[in-house]
Amino acid sequence: MKFPYDPDFAVFADGRRFGSATAGVSDLGRREKREETGAPVITVTFGYEREGIEIDRHRIDYDGFSVMEQWLTIRNTGHEPLSIDRIDSFCVSLPREEWRLLFFRSDWGAEFEPEESVLQDTVILETLHGRSSKGMQPWMTLIRGNGGLLNVCPVWSGNWILRCMREEDDAYRMSGGLHDRDFQVVLAPGEALESIRVVMAAGSDADLNTVSVPLARIGRKFWYPRNALSQSLPVEWNHWWTYEDRRINETVFLENAEQAANLGIEVCTLDAGWFGPDEAEAPWYDYRGDWDLVNRSRFPGGIRRLSDEIHEKGMMFGLWCEIEALGERARLGQQFPDFAAARDGERLGYLCFGNPEVRDWAFRTLDRLIREYGCDWIKLDFNLDPASGCNRTDHGHGAGDGLFRHYQGYYEVLDRVREAHPDVLLENCASGGLRNDLGIMRHAHVTFLSDPDWPEHSLQVFWGATTFLAPNACLHWSYSDWLGQHPEQRFKPDDPGLGQAQFDFYTRISMMRGFGFSQNLPGLPDWIRERIAFHVRVYRTLVNRFVKDADLYRLTGQPLRGGKGDRWTAFQYSMPDGAEHLLFVFRLSGADPRRYVRLTNLAADGNYELAGLPGARRRFRGSELMGLGIRFEHMAEEESALIHIRRTEE
């Protein structure tokens, strides 16, 4: 099974376009090697002697999958500087026929909003906000008339672009990679530049599962960093939504930790509010960067005391940090004015990781936090839009490649931290889910999907995120009790109308990936704490291994915010050997009273036993489950089912 297209590339330098068929190009040879991950790379070198350029086209075809990855290395082999202002990591001509276009728009609390249309005119998908998932998700799928799929994912955390250009003969030419707006890099003689990567996948039957399952398998094997903690998928508690920075302190944190230990939770994470000056009301946002200061009015015993008590209770300690950010009142900005990213003389609110001094400072800071505070988990947030990024020229980069060098530098720092602390889990976050991409997921262990977590939104985001991410790479908490105001965040644990089935519905949504809570644990009613402990046990003894190892199939359409989309939602986890499966089913408000859910990836002549299925019958043939399916008709709105399916010999 091979990827059915042969993408070209395009580099625009000194006013010319260079590709594999450019006049005067020479084939300088082909070589093969394996990356450290074991992925096989084929490199073909193209020479443009008159212009003094060589371009390596690197390509990985993942064995057994219709998935490929491509990127470029550009070298200046001439005697004069070479100015590059656009790099298309791939170009491909599409067969002349009707195509449908799928993509996701994205914003804070509105991630993975789908759009679908017939491809008729030129279409540009892009982000120019400086974070990969702000505006649009770095993901696009085209569907042919015969159901064939062509999926493209830029492997990048900054600005990217995907173009579908309609040509004179009404055919389309796709291209993309790094966004060319405000981009320019000048290579001195002998210098080289590596482009961003692009992953492309082909599928069939107009079924996104035929693309997402291979991407998840490849991600687990080749892309995602792993350590013992990330592989264990620990259940997390984080203080943020119930307390934010205003109501968190040492006593509150430790009281919650006591309850977390009783409930079987494995990680307690201290989010924003722990650092800065010794003022109870000091706003965390203004002091980002002063990670050497602890707010002693909130945490008089220091952070290490919290960590030690967490460890004594048999749990692990997590800490939030926005290492890229520079608050307006942070001392760091005065101590190191050259650290600040700026555009046209105006500070942008973050540190330029294109500056090697910033990278060294960032590594030393994270290294110190981990060592001094005994951190097992670091949550790395980023709460602003860099747009086109820094254009200072005294940072080790040029005026046109500041954002590009920033993300290269940020990736480098994450890798250094993982090398120095191989047992520590790194969580990616950016205002929730505004920097989720296949680039950052080669450097962080897990990514946070979105800040809000009301059920309908949470299901919509998970459905969308798993079109290119494996579920074990995702983290999103159960329905949280918010201190702040949000029209949809209405969970109140003391609501007399809240019942067990409804609470189970909320909690099971979070169990389908990395599992966590942001609640006032001591303030919960006893029955809710009992249900949390129950669900934590189920997750650790059953669900966890499916999230970590199984293939995920979306069996229903995407549920959408505002009462739209499919109002029944079903996800099937299928172990690679096909002998064991796990089915999650959710009935949202506004759903029809009855729904048949058809399973997949079963043996038609196999016998299957279902545990947890409402009703009397427990055994089915595979042909029944994949044909008519399972009938659900006695579930109320906001109820759910969790069904364990095993193949039997009978």
TrEMBL record:
Signal peptide: none annotated. PANTHER family: ALPHA-GALACTOSIDASE C-RELATED, GLYCOSIDASE FAMILY 31. The keyword Hydrolase applies. It comes from Cohnella candidum. InterPro entries: Aldolase_TIM, Alpga-gal_N_sf, Alpha-glycosidase_related, GH, Glyco_hydro_36, Glyco_hydro_36_C, Glyco_hydro_36_N, Glyco_hydro_b. It is an enzyme of class 3 (hydrolase). CDD domains: GH36 (cd14791). GO terms for biological process: carbohydrate catabolic process. GO terms for molecular function: alpha-galactosidase activity. Residues 62-188 form the Glycosyl hydrolase family 36 N-terminal domain. It catalyses: Hydrolysis of terminal, non-reducing alpha-D-galactose residues in alpha-D-galactosides, including galactose oligosaccharides, galactomannans and galactolipids. Residues 568-645 form the Glycosyl hydrolase family 36 C-terminal domain. SUPFAM superfamilies: (Trans)glycosidases (SSF51445). It holds the Pfam family Glyco_hydro_36C. Keywords: Glycosidase, Hydrolase. Its EC number is 3.2.1.22. This is alpha-galactosidase.
